[in-house]
Specification:
Layout: E1 5-11, E2 16-22, H1 26-39, E3 44-51
Antiparallel strand pairs: 1-2, 1-3
């Protein structure tokens, strides 16, 4: 499958990074980033998607 979105995360400390590319819909990619960001110990403040 071809990626359709790049999912980005901003932490409460102000660090921004691309978390992963996503092939499904934007909303499910954002939900995954919130969930996995917490699981991996990041203090997630914001998550967004940009079309590839």
């Amino acid at each position: 499958m071809t990626p359709t979105f790049r999912i980005f995360v901003r932490t409460a400390e102000g660090v921004e990074f691309q978390a992963f590319t996503w092939c499904r819909d934007e909303a499910s990619g954002i939900a995954r980033a919130w969930r996995e960001g917490r699981e991996f110990g990041h203090n997630v403040a914001d998550v967004w998607a940009e079309a590839v």
